[in-house]
Amino acid sequence: xxxxxxxxxxxxxxxxxxxxxxxxxxxxxWLSEIMLQQTRVAQGLPYFLSFTSSFPTVFDLAKADEEQxxxxxxxxxxxxxxxxxxxxxxxxxxxxxxxFPDNYNDLLKLKGVGEYTAAAIASFSHNExxxxxxxxxxxxxxxxxxxxxxxxxxxAKKEFTALAKELIPKDNPAIFNQAIMEFGALQCVPKNPNCxxxxxxSGCLALKYNKVNELPVKLKKTKVRNRYFNYIIFSDENxxxxxxxxxxxGIWHNLYEFPLIETESEVDFKTISKLILEEYSGKNMIxxxxxxxKSKILHKLSHQHLFVDFYKVEVxxxxxxxxxxxxxxxxxFPIVIYNFIEKDLL
Length: 346
What we know:
Blueprint: H1 3-14, H2 26-35, H3 41-54, H4 58-63, H5 66-73, H6 80-95, H7 104-107, H8 115-126, H9 135-144, H10 156-167, H11 173-186, H12 205-208, E1 225-235, E2 244-245, E3 256-257, E4 260-263, H13 269-280, E5 286-291, E6 297-300, E7 304-315, H14 325-328, H15 335-345
Parallel strand pairs: 1-7
Antiparallel strand pairs: 1-4, 2-3, 5-7, 6-7
Helix pairs in contact: 1-11, 2-3, 2-8, 8-11, 9-11
Catalytic activity: Hydrolyzes free adenine bases from 7,8-dihydro-8-oxoguanine:adenine mismatched double-stranded DNA, leaving an apurinic site
Enzyme class: hydrolase
Cofactor: [4Fe-4S] cluster
């Protein structure tokens, strides 16, 4: 069986019709690749359409305000991607006259563009013979060739990239890269793939040795930290609210949130009420404190699990710096806060 030809034939018959596949414009391909890192296509597609509508060119994105970019990105997570995207757009617009580098090595010099993204842009825009190696590619190759190298190890990337270089057809690298990624996304899926209908099943060593669900090997487990966020929603006599920008390093940098009391562990209502009174007994007298969510909200990030509670605190008089609900919802928030605002705040 010719692995590459079979894969490409499958792709041409089964590929999804996605907007970034109908262009060689490096701007659109770059946008899609940055958005689809750690994001499923179904989730990323509406964001791609929204971005290309709001910012048709790299110059439009470069001119945008960061808060506008973060607001459009709201819900995609990994917000450093959006900040890097914006910064790189400014660099391309001002330093490169809006023209993206046309080769893999120069693309790698752009902030936020790693080996995978550089390879994708170089092959899809310029048909450069450079393999794209992502999670889907790891899975397909490890199963088909029975490779037990831990994909979290430092040597895995080199090993799989070298193998992909041997397989990639020199006359059609872009289609091959699209094909192997699509095959991993639709056919050779992480759990319980339907191997009976797989066009590669006759040569797949994982299927032959009954190891499909054992590959790829990933031994390194991400250490998860638990954090406890107690958000305080102050409301004054005008029903105006207080929000703050997260300027500290770490999660949600430059997004907005309500005043926060972070605790070392879960606390009961009596304890959080005492902490609120201690920390916020300032100019405005606190009239009442009440919990707003019936059960604790669990929000999972890649390295952190956040346990989130919201408390409404009504105060006497008018709060300095408070804004209306209508004004507030135009700001970019972490999705766990935005969902709460939309569903439960009013």
